Amino acid sequence: KLLEMVDDNLWADTKFINGRLIIDNGRKVRTLVQDSWMEGVTRSFSHYKSPAREKGTKMLKIGGRLWMYTPRTDRKILIAGHLLRQSMMGSDLSYEDMMEDHKLSKSYSATFEGFEEFGGIRCVVLHLVAGDKKTTYQTRKAWIDKDAKILLKEERFAKSGKLLKRIVFEDYEKIGERLFPRTLIFRDMLKENTKTTYKFDVIKFDVEIPAKYFSQSILKR
Known about the structure:
Number of domains: 1
Helix content: under 10%
Number of helices: 3
Largest sheet: 13 strands, antiparallel
Number of strands: 13
Strand order of the largest sheet: 6-5-4-3-2-1-13-12-11-10-9-8-7
Radius of gyration: 17 Å
CATH class: Mainly Beta
CATH superfamily: Lipoprotein localisation LolA/LolB/LppX
Strand content: over 45%
CATH topology: outer membrane lipoprotein receptor (LolB), chain A
Mean pLDDT: 94
């Protein structure tokens, strides 16, 4: 039940996000600016606005399929299978993380692990096991502020039990009826000294999205 409430805070029928991906690879920091439109958990479209090198790059997700268009090659490619697990544009997020497409309460079954302090808040810790054997992250751990019904930290594991990703959710803000994190910090635990901060500068829920945004014909110059 708690997981469903957490999901209700994060998911909407449709949403628009103008955000920045701040990618720190331990040597230099790059910032990508993008607009994203999402419909439920199945369809999303992202358009990169800057820097110059990435400007005009587009990503379209429909169901389990993801296409990427780059203006430099003027081609669209289907990213599928194991390619979805690769780093997206050198960030700590895989393509799959970027297009995360399931509600935790629908895709995972939860067991209570106990209470733990995180960021000065006493959290409920849940151990999550995927219902589908094909899910990349077979298990996850979630730290939830049970009073506010919000997710504060999440760890994602491979089938082997190896920790792959750690995500911290920060800057929760009341937007309409929900509390939504304006900052997500991703760490790829297989890399050293890297982190990617995803900042949401504009968030709008239940927006009208033009049908053309979810059509492959948008994947061109």
